[in-house]
Design a protein that fits this description.
Shape: globular
Order of helices and strands: EEHHHEEEHEHEEEEEEEEEEEEEEE
Number of strands: 21
Structural class: mainly beta
Strand order of the largest sheet: 11-12-13-15-1-6-18-17-16
Strand content: 35-45%
Distance between the termini: 37 Å
Radius of gyration: 22 Å
Number of helices: 5
Helix content: 10-25%
Length: 329
């Protein structure tokens, strides 16, 4: 099978970005509530009106804590984040594209990266984003690109693959009880009938904190955690899908996690996909059922941001091979 191969996105959250989970509860809410006397109902009950009242302020405190931690880590090479965007691609807006005419509704960008045709996609519409923070951090992948295939034992250490006896570790949140004890969180999936479930558990005791219906369609064969999201391979009637779901605790209670995006990966592999592994740099690896081959996959972000003053268009992805068609819409 030739690579690269493109896998189209078949579903996108109506909100359109990673911040689309709306109102959710962070662990900081319980930390603030723990400042109250131990006999108060608000401290003991994480669903109390008092905790719901302080939760919005706690969300901002959590974001501030994360920003401070990232600033400190970025000062040292050994702790700096490797998955931050550090390269953008730009193109000069052609002279025939009018950026001042009010009758023109905007700028249109179309690209055709390698591997589009085998997936039944002839071209890709690159979407415009007008918010810099969203462009860098919150947009969802528009497609999945399978870039290469290799031997299971030589590409990734086969012994270290998917050794997760108590679930997938949540690296961003902790469960904090009203005694101010911090508990590591893991996620696991069960295939119980008629609907499978995801369980948010204590890493050591495996106590269930929250139970959600399985995101996407079909049964889960494997999943991994990456930047506040759960990436799972779902099998449904002979077809395979890569499902991205938010791992945030929604308020009020919800029966299922917020599904962010679904990609059809059925025709992308020469073998039946089974396991998935997330790397720190945003790359993913998928292995086949018999653990003989490993496939490298990369989420792609087909978005651009327009600098009207200097007449430049900036892209997240590299379109130098295929080129980009730019025109007024």
């Amino acid at each position: 099978m030739s690579y690269p191969t493109q896998c189209p996105r078949t579903y996108s959250n109506p909100g359109g970005n990673l911040a689309a989970s709306g109102y959710y509860r962070s662990s900081m809410t319980q930390e603030v509530a723990n400042m109250m006397p131990p006999w108060m109902h608000m401290r003991e009950n994480n669903r109390s009106i008092g905790q719901q009242f302080i939760s919005p302020a706690a969300l901002h405190l959590k974001r501030l804590e994360n920003s401070l931690n990232e600033s400190i880590k970025s000062k040292f090479l050994t702790t700096a984040s490797l998955d931050e965007i550090d390269v953008l691609y730009r193109v000069k807006v052609p002279s025939n594209v009018d950026l001042t005419d009010v009758s023109a509704s905007g700028v249109r960008c179309v690209a055709a990266p390698s591997g589009c045709s085998p997936s039944g996609v002839s071209q890709i519409w690159v979407s415009e984003i007008d918010n810099l923070e969203e462009f860098y951090y919150n947009v969802l992948p528009t497609r999945i690109e399978v870039t290469s295939s290799g031997s299971y034992t030589s590409t990734v250490d086969g012994v270290g693959w998917h050794v997760k006896p108590s679930g997938i570790l949540d690296t961003e949140e902790k469960q904090i009880d009203y005694w101010n004890d911090h508990h590591e969180i893991t996620w696991c999936y069960t295939d119980d009938s008629p609907v499978g479930h995801l369980r948010k558990q204590d890493r050591d005791s495996m106590e269930d904190y929250e139970i959600y219906e399985r995101p996407g369609t079909g049964s889960i064969t494997d999943m991994d955690f990456y930047r506040g999201t759960l990436w799972s391979i779902n099998k449904h009637v002979g077809s395979y899908y890569l499902t991205v779901a938010s791992a945030k605790t929604q308020m009020p209670n919800s029966q299922s996690l917020d599904t962010l995006a679904i990609f059809n990966i059925t025709d992308a592999f020469s073998l039946e996909p089974s396991g998935i592994l997330a790397a720190d740099d945003g790359k993913f690896w998928i292995c086949d059922t018999n653990k003989t081959r490993i496939f490298e996959i990369n989420p792609r972000y087909d978005y651009f941001i327009l600098d009207k003053d200097n007449r430049y268009i900036y892209f997240r992805e590299d379109y130098r091979d295929s080129g980009v068609f730019v025109s007024n819409t």
